[in-house]
Amino acid sequence: MQGDPKIDERLGLNVPRETWPTPPLLKAYEAAGFAWVQVHTPPIAMLADRERARQHARALRAALDTTGLRLLIHGPDDLSAGTELHDRAFGGLLDYAAEARAELIVYHGLNFRSAEDAPSARALADRVELEEASLRRRATVAQRLGVRLCVENLAPVYPGPPRVCHDPAAVSALVRRIAMPSVAMLFDVGHGHIAAALRRDDLPSLLAPVLGDVGLFHLHDNLGARRHDVQAPGVDPLRLDLHLPLGAGTLPWIRVAATLRDHDAPLMLEIGAGVRQEPLVLGRSARAAFGEARASVPA
């Protein structure tokens, strides 16, 4: 499938969380022109049982070996380095990556509620310090394995209190403090759109300062902060993090597409199970979105 080489070799599609990536499904991704696939790992308890984690990873690798797709794995959403159980699970996550021959690991770092007063600020600083120290140790192992940890900026799924990970600058600062090539930032463009809207800011302004730390992009659309009761047919009336196909929401795609195209990090479509189309349609629409953005730029 011909297209833009700057996009084709970097474009990927997620496997929905509750779906097992069978060989026919993965072959459909490859036939649609995707180069990468994202697969969720088992939960924390299974990763902490490292032999079970390896067993699961070997089954995933067997399915992937029917294709030429490159793999990134998404760790558990609630994994938070710096405690005994979670550090043991993180070890299992790295084992999983090695067995499955993943190149990238998605991790939700700084997933702590923002401080509201001096005592909570001190507690938050202590918890962040524990996470950072743990990540440094995991980064050393990741470097030896040849895998990269990608720390993701998040956004509220529904309206709620802010969390540290909702600020891309905070995630970027964590990556810079660790300062190891095996740790990068995952800039989630859909989450950035929500964060910018909640702050009455601008998505390109959130992206530009962190661009040099990015090793992976997540691409999906939504309706921003949904101020003034913004609605759309067929979607949850309150949810912010909708994971819609590109163009189905209000993300200012034209203003960020050129920046994404000119980068070299993989571009992973992360589309929700209830709103996704066939892989071929998703691939074509993503390429068309990049093409339309290029065409709109004055010569």
Automatic annotation (TrEMBL):
Transmembrane parts of this sequence: none
Origin: domain of life: Bacteria
First and last residue of the signal peptide: none
SUPFAM superfamilies: Xylose isomerase-like
Segments forming domain Xylose isomerase-like TIM barrel: 27-272
Gene3D superfamilies (alphabetical): Divalent-metal-dependent TIM barrel enzymes
InterPro entries xref list: IolE/XylAMocC-like, Xyl_isomerase-like_sf, Xyl_isomerase-like_TIM-brl
Name of the protein described by the UniProt record: Xylose isomerase-like TIM barrel domain-containing protein
Organism: Capillimicrobium parvum
